[in-house]
Write a structure and sequence with these properties.
It is built from five helices and four strands, in the order H-E-H-H-H-E-E-H-E. With 166 residues, it is of the alpha+beta class. It folds into two domains: 32 residues; 132 residues, no CATH class. A four-stranded mixed β-sheet has the order 1-3-2-4, sandwiched between helices.
């Protein structure tokens, strides 16, 4: 093997090692970072069943103890606090709705009670796309900061509606 061929092989190995290192560093961000998306798009992108295999979603059943050392009533109180926290955060960031607006949300929390996925569907079909983008950017910021207040033994999810107004 010539010296030039050896250098080419070493350079390729060096490049591959760096590519592999970059992939390893970016993997968590690609798959485990906060994702805020329109619910309609998210449901096309993620198979509902695949998320339910990862995230416990039987919150209001006797199985809740698989996830929390809490009753369904305590979870509901904390979920209500979460919903009010979302609405307050959006309001404090001076987002204006123009009218009372209801949104459906599906939120997926990891084992550390941080948000992995936040799917939202605003019920007003005339809700402007530019406002949707601003709302999703605010929810992404909220998702980075928020931590659910009940300790979870496993990743979990919940759905609900939030009413927003100015």
């Amino acid at each position: 093997m010539s010296c030039e061929t050896s250098l080419t092989i070493l350079n390729k190995k060096h490049v591959m090692k760096h590519c592999l290192a970059l992939l390893c560093l970016s993997f968590p961000a690609l798959f485990f970072g906060q994702k805020v998306e329109k619910m309609e798009l998210a449901m096309r992108k993620y198979a509902q069943d695949s998320l339910q295999e990862i995230y416990f979603n039987r919150i209001f059943s006797d199985e809740i103890t698989e996830c929390f050392q809490a009753s369904p009533e305590l979870f509901l109180a904390e979920w209500s606090k979460f919903s009010r926290g979302v609405a307050k955060y959006i309001h404090e960031k001076n987002f204006t709705w123009g009218q009372k607006t209801t949104a459906m949300v599906d939120v997926y929390f990891n084992r550390d009670e941080k948000i992995d996925h936040f799917f939202i569907s605003v019920k007003d079909p005339s809700f402007p796309e530019d406002k949707y983008r601003k709302l999703m950017a605010l929810l992404e910021d909220f998702s980075k900061e928020y931590k659910f207040t009940i300790d979870a033994a496993i990743p979990f999810s919940n759905s609900g509606s939030i009413i927003f107004y100015d």
